[in-house]
Amino acid sequence: AGNGLHQLRYPTDVLIDKETDSLIICDYGNRRVVRWSRRSSTTQGEILIGNIDCYGLAMDEQRYLYVSDAGRNEVRRYQLGEKNGTLVAGGNGVISELNQLNEPTYLFVDRQQNVYVSDNENHRVIKWNKGAKEGIVVGGGQGGGSALTQLSYPYGIFVDTLGTLYVVDEGNHRVMRWTQGDKKQGTVIVGGNDQGAGANQFNVPVGLSFGRHGNLYVADCDNHRVQRFSIE
After folding, report:
1. Both 20 and 90 in a single domain?
2. Do 150 and 86 have their domain in common?
3. Are strands 215-220 and 205-210 parallel, antiparallel or unpaired?
4. Contact present, 115 and 75 (Cβ < 8 Å)
5. pTM, two decimal places
6. Backbone angles phi, psi at 121, to 5 degrees
7. Is the domain of 96 the same as that of 47?
8. Positions of the NHL repeats (predicted)?
């Protein structure tokens, strides 16, 4: 770990930019977003955005880059090479109003450029429609807790083409699903069996991803493993 261009410090998120065959990385501990070519001769990265408490990344089909800034409690959209970006969510101070965020972590952007944000300290996932001045709660938002209406420190999120939300509910050691028609409560799809190391348990889950065959992969942080589940 270190702050050289050949080093990273507590990276939190990464995506692949196929156009340039490179990795774009949230280098959280160095407060920067960096790009590393995937060519074998690469020995260091380049800084795309500096002075940012970046936590989550997403890229839309037009290759706009979205970055959550947990320090400024906002999400910005950048054209690659741009330094300042455009505010797309939050940025109105820290409380729990619909135009505010409190420690935004992971992001998801759909094909309409709507932005979903894990609003970590507000224990909710919030959707900002493109151009909106405030968000819509699509998961949690009832204070931190373990009821099916609640989340506790949400992290990784994914939204399918039907608008179904999948979210890592880190504080409850589970993954939840919220369908579009039912904003009030979600269902537990894996975990939720207390903290532990069993096959049906997590210990501080953080990230999630879906494979091409529909399998769900979960980064089970404090168990030092990635788990795969087939979801009905």
Report:
1. no
2. yes
3. antiparallel
4. yes
5. 0.96
6. -80, -15
7. no
8. 100-131, 196-232
